[in-house]
Design brief:
The protein folds into 2 domains: 206 residues, FAD/NAD(P)-binding domain (3-Layer(bba) Sandwich); 199 residues, Alpha-Beta Plaits (2-Layer Sandwich). The chain has 15 helices and 27 strands. The protein is globular, with a radius of gyration of 23 Å.
Length: 568
Amino acid sequence: MGVTPEEYPPPVDETGEFIAEPTDPDDERIEVGLAVVGGGPAGLACAARTMQLLEAEPELAERLGEVPVAVIEKGKACGAHTLSGANLNPSSMRELFPDLDPSEWPFSYGEVTKDAVYLLTKKAALPLKPMPPNFRNHGNYGISVAKLSRFLAERAEEMGAYILTETVADKLLVSDRIVRGVRSGDRGRDREGEPLGNFEPGSDVIAKATVLAEGTLGHLTTAARRKFDLDGALPVRWELGVKEVWEVPKPLDRVIHTMGWPLRKRAKWNEFGGSFIYPMGEDKLCIGMVVGLDYTDATLSCHDLLQELKTHPFVRKLLDGGKRVAWGAKTIPSGGYWSMPRSLAVPGMVMAGDAANMVNVPTLKGVHYAMHAGSYAAETIVEALKADPDSVNFDAYHQRVHDSVIGKDLYESRNMRQPFSKGFFVGGAAASAMTITKGNFPAGKWKYEPDTEIAMHDGGAAKRYPEADNELTFNKLDSVFLSGNATRDDAPNHVRVQKHVPRVLAQTWVSLCPAQVYEIPDDQAGNGATEVDVNVTPSNCVQCGAINAKGGRLTMPEGGDGPLYQEL
């Protein structure tokens, strides 16, 4: 029968721990106009757009106080935790900064002029012609999302927004069912949670409007969905992406996607995903592997699948003579339209970007939707506060999103992910029909099981993974070092899992995690027991969030902990 992760839920009280009323005295609270949680594309687009609008609204700007917009970012810098492919649809940048030519974008590697899709077997790479239309990237721009976030942060700051990095939004402040802001996390506690000599308590950040733009697996967004009963028509689901940047002697002249090997095609494995290889200027390329987290094999590892992918003759040739210079991992929301919150606004608060599942999985696009959503949030909030300075009603945002390119595109791809549970070929045929008919055939709402309800078995995927040679293939610990991760060894544990579980679930966590956070103790690894202990090393964590899909819960560590992505 296997073991389903939902049978062993994490020791977390979503609303009890992460929802609270304001507690600081009035004179100790931090008062801001907009509190934007997350320094990624959605949050920073919201901050920049708000400041643009306030230039024409001096009275409203004055009412919002000395800090009209505060962006609360848990990483060491904006972009530190931001990871994506990525090919950017330029529509959001052109709307936000119409006077800025793409040639001036410091985060861009140029316009995509060539692309290709290959079906991989173990030894061959078969080009797909004609190319599936959802993979076409002509007119998009290859970018670094980490660099995009830094650029947006600089622009927002220049316009008057405040960027609070190394600051965790630990709790959502709610009173009378109205979101009043967030509480920042404590700093300087030891592993047991006791204050150290440098301890600093968190503070209540009180805002006229709160924007949750936390990215995938948003910590407070998850709690808000429970508190306000916001779950969509179908459950949230995720994919995991592991990505490397390589310096190479020969420039790559096209965007490449692959499907097939090293993933298995049979329905019983439910291995959905593929790879991407994108040019990054004259001397670099990025290569990544993405896997849906509804797979069934407890030994499947996305990190090791990427290492295996690099041994393919077609891929190895692209990397010959090169050197790996960066590595990272992150989840991607893949539920699409049906998994979006049933409302994107509650009194005092809106949600934007990956936190609200605004990702189009068939086209591998989400960054421009996040930026559009951040801009729509800014416009809705400014309009509401201009009409009524005490307004907490931002409901117009929900319809604004659904009437936009976000709602239109996601609705057309609303059922494209689900058919792949029937296997690679059936799924591909159904997805092609949906692409041609813009989602109208096959019609309806195709249901699916949440990732946590998928029964896990030992399916033997790990038997074929290559050993690390430190030239082409690498192990997990060396990769974590390359991410710039600097989490304190004595910091409190921010990863919540049960510590004694069936072996197959423990193995799922060990294999799943790209950063080697989970281990089965050596004395139990081969003793044949059906249940084992799980050791957790939270300082390895790069906050990818994949554990949430398989029975755990990633909560927020101390501000500034985690990776420091530069190129990714």
